Amino acid sequence: MLEDDEAMEIALAEAALAEEHGDVPVGAVVVRGGVVVARRHNERERRADPTAHAEVLALRDAAAGSGGWRLDGCTVYSTLEPCPMCAGALLAARVDRVVFAAADPKAGACGSLYNLLADPRLNHEPDILAGVLAERAAGLLEAFFATRRTSR
Amino acid sequence: MLEDDEAMEIALAEAALAEEHGDVPVGAVVVRGGVVVARRHNERERRADPTAHAEVLALRDAAAGSGGWRLDGCTVYSTLEPCPMCAGALLAARVDRVVFAAADPKAGACGSLYNLLADPRLNHEPDILAGVLAERAAGLLEAFFATRRTSR
């Protein structure tokens, strides 16, 4: 079985790839039955697609690979606390569990500004684990934004 | 210029198309400069994609057509109040204005359960207009679910 920190390492490696095309370094991994079934990174700039966050892309890949939109049995790992769109996508996909690294005080919807994953009025409540390898994920983001500020 | 009810008529026509492949009838239209730049319907079942709600698909088409993820200047029409994922996508795309028909008391994130479009902590606050052709949109949904209950 893949441990949480091992899966998050893969998500961090994905996040680093986003920088190669000028995207904010966020990565996401979907695991089902102990196996990685999708791994993606943020491609908003690369694809000029406002919905191309790492989590959305990974969920779409996982669903395409399984042949169904319902991703029960899956755990999704993200290097950053999911935003409202991504938290909503995790609910829409009915994932069992969400693990994230760094909190996002500006847009986080899994505990920071909202907790969409723990609302009994909505139709699904996945388990949540926050803070796995958080410092490394936050470090990637800080380094990315520091470079951009310097180069402008 | 396209009036709000004219644009919503197009969204309703899209919604009806979803039923042909067993998807919940919701349609969405993106208008920029008085011109329809995207029109889609819910394709969750057809594509086996948990993120294939009408609004997400329409935003992706509109961005692809414009060459950039930032959809300022756009109004998005949806026949159903956007869910958390779709409301988050509307924020992520920085649309100017959101018009919807029927409210969604079970999952609506634009006034019913949440109002993600009117939160000064998030980075964008589009204008909202609710209730345009609401009865027709709700009627489509009711007829769809009534048929499914009968046939099971």
3D architecture notes:
The structure is a homodimer of 152-residue chains. With 152 residues, chain A is α/β, with parallel strands linked by helices. Chain A is built from five helices and five strands, in the order αββααβαββα. Chain A has helices spanning 4-18, 44-47, 54-66, 84-92, 134-151, and strands spanning 27-32, 35-41, 74-80, 97-102, 127-130. A five-stranded mixed β-sheet of chain A has the order 2-1-3-4-5. In chain A, a hairpin with a 2-residue loop joins strand 1 and strand 2 (35-41). The relative contact order of chain A is 0.16. The interface between A and B is large, with 40 and 40 residues.
Radius of gyration of chain A: 14 Å
Shape designation of chain A: globular
Oligomeric grouping of the chains: homodimer
Task: Tell me roughly what share of residues is in helical segments of chain A.
Answer: 25-40%
User: How many beta-strand segments of chain A?
Assistant: 5
Chain pair forming the biggest interface = A-B, 40 and 40 residues
Query: Residue-averaged pLDDT of chain A, rounded?
Result: 96
Strand-residue proportion of chain A: 15-25%
As laid out across the biggest beta sheet of chain A, the strand order is 2-1-3-4-5
